[in-house]
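Before the break, one more example. Copy the sequence into your notebook; we will annotate it together after we see the structure.
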Amino acid sequence: MSAGWLASAGVGAANVFLTLALAPLGEGIIRKVTARMQSRQGPPLLQPYYDLLKLLGKEDIESGESPVVQRLAALLALGTTLSLAVLIPIGGRVPLAGRGDAILLVYMITVCGVATLLAGLAAGSPYAVVGVSRGMMSMLTLEPILVVVVIASAVRAGSLGLPAVLAAPLWTAPSGIPASGLVLLVVMLLALQAFVERVPFDIAEAETEIMEGALVEYSGPKLALFKYARSVRLLVYASLLVALFSPLGRSWDYPFGILATLGQVLVLVLLVTLVGATHARYRIDQALRYYGALLATAVVGLTLVIAGY
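Here is what the structure looks like once it is written out:
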């Protein structure tokens, strides 16, 4: 095994550790800032860590129709989300010596959503089924947006390999920032709230309507894994957006590159918090129309990339 491969595997392991350590903190920032915006004290920043430890310490009650599938879905949700942390750079080079490609990236992101849908179906609750149906409709219209953006990056890079795709982001062009890069950046910023399933796009969860949606029958350790996966998803999606569009910190030495990336991720977390605290939840039909408009705009951006703009 070469030294380069070992070093790259070490970067991947460091990414996973960093993601596991910081993901609940992002949730804590969202809660605290939202409370301040609403003139409340809010919970401590570390409250999500306490919540996860409390859930992990509870009895694992099996109340669904297929306990085996429920257990597998919980592990799959967190496992596939953490796998994304091995594929996406966090202030450094692409981990695993660039063994992955853009197709694998899209596939793993899709599996993350499928795991939650599978969990809802295995629970057998009518509330869970409603959440699953909403989540499935959202996924079918939302995931193609990311696919189009990743394809546009691959077209510009001339390769499907992740190192090439992430090393030639959409803001690069010989004559300056291209029109396609601006269009796709706007699309991803507008879609970020939906990708991480936060208000106003937490339609599949909708606590006041269907009581946690697909996860209504879950408690204890399995619920902790799903909650952890949701927190990790926020950090991973924000890191992917930074990797695709931001030049800041790319050439900086360790640890300044990581700090630059995490600083930009923090800005995106605050943006998600601002939108969530100032908007009411959309109906499913409103969300689908919104996703459709973003997908059409993303296709325009891809067309501009192919045309060289």
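The CA atoms of residues 106 and 147 lie 7 Å apart. The chain has a mean pLDDT of 84. Try to locate both features in your own notes.
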